[in-house]
Design a protein that fits this description.
It contains 11 helices and 11 strands. With 288 residues, it is of the alpha/beta class. The strands form 2 sheets. Strands 2-5-4-3-1-6 form a 6-stranded mixed sheet. A 5-stranded parallel sheet has the order 8-7-9-10-11, with helices on both faces. Helix 6 packs across helix 11 (273-284) and helix 8 packs parallel to helix 10.
Length: 288
């Protein structure tokens, strides 16, 4: 986590923070009320910059005239286009308007900022300042479960049960690089996966809410009904030519329907768990 800075979002849209995403004009992002060295560092919003910003806490506030409380949370995704910047986010706690103004000096917020829609980056340890009003953001974040029916993941895994030991080692190594909440691994969400129509939920996660899907191919993968259901979403992505979002790691020479000799893969038997995790992170770094 980047503890010595936080993202401040202020919007004049009264519904801006009621869903899980909003769009800001590019000329209102980072360049206002942000110290020059931070502007120079983050304004290009490349992959590395986005990853660092996602690891910094956020305040999601409204302009004063909206008369609404703010939220505290994290960015889950940033998409940059010519027409604007889409911020996908997750709120984990409420910050009252009264407390936000009470901490105005400590949070380095200028008076006019409360009347201006913008995104600024502040050189402030938000965790420390919130403790003064009784909010332990670390504890809140640690105890806050991810809602897998809405959450967007950086990477999701699909594999046969016989491969779990290998996959879990890779996941543990990847956790050293990515926040755990950015990884969809079934054992992290046992309670939420105990539901009817699980096939629909899993296909939605793989098809619509994952930047990268890592498939551990093996002979047993072909035999598993659930793997087959998950692979349906992957085949649709192939048909739609979204192949950059798919990564094969092969654990043996077993046949899997829909995977052909012309499809390239990483030989999972030749690399350590740490190396495989680094390969996955390298692929993620290519997404803008």
């Amino acid at each position: 986590m980047s503890e010595e800075m936080y993202n401040l979002f202020i919007s004049g849209d009264e519904n801006a923070w009621e869903s899980n995403s909003t769009i800001f004009d590019i000329d209102r992002c980072i360049v206002e009320y942000t110290e020059k060295d931070l502007v120079d560092k983050f304004v290009k919003l490349g992959k590395n910059e986005i990853n660092e910003l996602k690891n910094s806490p956020c305040i999601f506030a409204y302009e004063d005239y909206c008369d609404k409380d703010a939220g505290i949370g994290y960015i889950t995704d940033i998409v940059v286009r010519q027409v604007g910047i889409k911020i996908t986010f997750e709120k984990v706690e409420v910050l009252s308007k009264e407390n936000l103004h009470k901490l105005q000096f400590e949070l380095d917020i200028k008076n006019w900022e409360f009347n201006r829609t913008h995104w600024a980056i502040k050189k402030v340890n938000l965790y420390k300042e919130l403790q003064a009003i009784g909010i332990n953001l670390r504890a809140v974040n640690a105890n806050q479960p991810v809602d897998i029916t809405k959450h967007f993941f950086d990477v999701s895994f699909t594999f046969a049960g016989e491969s779990r030991d290998i996959v879990e080692q890779v996941v543990k190594e990847l956790e050293k690089i990515l926040d755990k909440n950015h990884i969809f691994y079934d054992n992290y969400y046992i309670s939420q996966l105990a539901r009817p129509s699980l096939d629909t939920l899993l296909q939605d996660i793989y098809r619509n809410r994952s930047k990268l899907i890592v498939i551990f191919l093996c002979e047993k993968y072909q035999d598993k009904k659930w793997c087959g259901l998950e692979f349906r979403a992957i085949r649709e992505m192939i048909m739609e030519k979204e192949i950059s979002k798919i990564m094969y790691i092969r654990l043996d020479a077993g046949h899997v329907d829909g995977v052909f000799n012309t499809d390239a893969y990483i030989d999972g038997t030749k690399f350590t768990s740490q190396q495989l995790a680094n390969f996955i992170n390298e692929r993620l770094s290519l997404f803008e």
